[in-house]
Design goal:
Length: 512
């Protein structure tokens, strides 16, 4: 069934507390999606961010971002007072995220809420106990990892003393005993994160909105996953990485790119039935309606760079698990809704794996007008794909239009039959082009509907400054904009049939 959605990171929502979170503004955005005739809300990864503030370099593949816990929600539960919330400033600019202030003060506020949680006796509540039992598979390692990082002044686990780095049984047991209270604090944060998230997700479902979650392919080297499961990564006996992930040299990057993530030992994972990856997918499927897997090509082949190398020139291409992994996924889950981020260099192996799995790939309209034979030209698309004007890694469509050469701009105008000289109007013409394509699903970044320029770009790959900070201005979304989006969505047949039930609305759609 044809449908559409909006790409909008949780962090980019408006809120009074320095960053978008599971606050009333998130519920208002769900209402906006509903009013706009949308079916999907696509978000970026929701894990705790580490160095560089990137959601794709999280300290856990399972945990939630503490910054997304809504202080007002904690106040409603009697864990914080208005005065306690107002004690801290999380940034003065409502359109920019100040990660420094969040890092310095958000945990102090959450600690006040935790102390109240303890004083009220909620540590022994049935709901809290059930959460700890249900999530113990990852939660125990994560809370210990975070407590140890706090004890070690934030140092990477690769710099810890050998007994803890190697997870020697006696050292881990002693650390659990010594740091039990600090571990409980980090556990409380995860409890509140998931309690608030599930409440928001239930509200979205009631409104007929499905959430597309984003799963990074790799994990960060300094993560609870790499520390607790060193056996699934290519590391030496001292738990130091042998290789790091990245990209090979090309015309855009003569020395290639080093990402810093440890690469998987797929042979070792195959022997245990890919158990860690299956647990990860199971967890994601329990919180998202659809999972977008970043860097899908990594399942076909990946670029491994010797860890001590200063650039990526001497890396080697290695085989990924291929269809064998997805057979294990199918055996474990049956049907699971996935989207493959299959951008970048497309090889025959990549193309064949996508075809065999039947998972829809991504088509980016901004890439279509580089040449007349681009694979992203709308007339070359098949139904089983997801079309975007751009992604979080692209400039906004208006900013992109401003960079086109005269020839590229002329070609784009001829193709989409747009003679608008105003780039705002042409941005909407490109949205229409995406909407009327044959792609089953169309996702538009919110910035494009708002005709924002480079000031609203989320991320510029290959740079380390000024990313992940954009936020929508307060009270910026309007009924007029919702009506305009609804009209274009209805025009191209992307509003699904909604069936009312007694307690919720359900959307009749087919699996992706």
């Amino acid at each position: 069934m044809r449908s559409s959605g909006i790409l909008m990171p949780v962090s980019s929502l408006d809120s009074r507390h320095g960053i978008g979170c599971f606050s009333r503004e998130a519920y208002a955005f769900v209402d906006f999606l509903k009013e706009s005739g949308q079916t999907f809300w696509q978000i970026l990864p929701v894990g705790p961010t580490g160095f560089g503030d990137s959601p794709y370099q999280s300290v856990s593949a399972f945990a939630g971002n503490p910054y997304y816990v809504d202080p007002e929600g904690l106040k409603d539960d009697g864990l914080l007072s208005s005065q306690e919330i107002e004690e801290f400033s999380f940034g003065d600019d409502p359109e920019t995220i100040d990660y420094g202030k969040l890092y310095n003060y958000r945990y102090l506020l959450l600690k006040k809420a935790y102390d109240s949680f303890v004083e009220k006796g909620f540590l022994s509540s049935e709901d809290y106990a059930e959460f700890k039992t249900r999530e113990a598979d990852w939660l125990d390692d994560y809370t210990l990892f975070m407590a140890l990082k706090r004890k070690n002044d934030g140092k990477s686990w690769t710099e810890w003393e050998a007994p803890l780095r190697h997870r020697e049984e006696s050292a881990v047991l002693n650390a659990r005993n010594e740091l039990s209270e600090l571990m409980e604090f980090f556990c409380f944060i995860q409890y509140e994160f998931y309690r608030q998230y599930h409440k928001l997700h239930a509200y979205a479902k009631k409104k007929g909105i499905r959430i597309i979650g984003d799963m990074p392919f790799y994990v960060a080297m300094d993560s609870a996953d790499a520390w607790a499961h060193a056996e699934i990564f290519r590391m030496d006996q001292d738990h130091q990485p042998l290789f790091t992930a990245g990209t090979a040299p090309d015309a855009f990057s003569p020395k290639g790119q080093i990402w810093g993530n440890p690469v998987y030992d797929w042979k070792a994972m195959k022997k245990n039935g890919y158990v860690w990856w299956l647990r990860r997918l199971e967890h994601a499927a329990s919180i998202f309606d659809v999972i977008r897997i970043d860097h899908f090509h990594g399942f076909s082949s990946y670029y491994a760079i010797p860890f001590k190398d200063k650039d990526a020139q001497h890396g080697i291409f290695e085989k990924g698990p291929g269809m064998d992994f997805f057979k294990a996924v199918q055996k474990r889950f049956g049907q699971i809704d996935l989207i493959a981020e299959d951008l970048g260099e497309v090889t025959e192996e990549n193309r064949q794996l996508l075809l065999e799995t039947g998972i829809p790939g991504m088509k980016i309209l901004q890439y279509a007008f580089t040449s007349w034979d681009s694979i992203y030209m709308p007339h070359k698309l098949e139904k089983n794909c997801v079309i975007y004007t751009g992604t979080h890694d692209n400039p906004t469509t208006r900013a992109w239009l401003e960079t086109l050469s005269e020839g590229e701009l002329s070609f784009a105008r001829r193709y989409i039959r747009s003679w608008n000289t105003d780039f705002n109007a042409m941005t909407w013409d490109l949205i229409r082009e995406a909407m009327h394509s044959v792609a089953d699903l169309c996702i538009i970044p919110l910035q494009d509907y708002l005709c924002k320029g480079n000031e609203a770009r989320i991320n510029t790959p290959g740079t380390s400054q000024g990313n992940w900070t954009w936020r929508i201005p307060p009270k910026f979304l309007s009924h007029e904009l919702a009506e305009a989006i609804h009209e274009i969505t209805a025009t191209y047949g992307r509003i699904p049939y909604i069936r009312e039930t007694e307690d919720e609305q359900s959307t009749d759609t087919v699996s992706l």
